[in-house]
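DM between two lab members

TW: hey, do you still have the ArsR family transcriptional regulator entry open?
JB: yeah, one sec
JB: this one, 107 aa:
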Amino acid sequence: MELTASRVLLHVYHYNEIHSSAIANDYGKTVTPIRLQLERFEKAGILVAKNVGRSRVFAFNQKSPFVKPIKEILSIFYNSLIIEEKENILSTRRRPREKGKPVYGRT
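TW: and the structure you got?
JB:
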């Protein structure tokens, strides 16, 4: 599977903030091309980064006029995915599930 810029943005959309090694682990790819793509988005003003320890965590730049239309397009794509595809692409949980929260879409 080829890793595209849209897949990187899909991860940022799903997790709200993410670091490059998390995306690399989900796709089984090296970190360098993902980090470079995230940095391109940061340079374009679509993403912002903050340092958390030794890691750089990326999130959407809410001040950018381009973010709202990009998120709308990602929302359409994200909502069109079936649950099995979401589990394959976005399989890793980044935070613990809230206590008592029901699990939708599973039998």
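TW: got it. The chain has a mean pLDDT of 85. The two ends are 29 Å apart (CA to CA).
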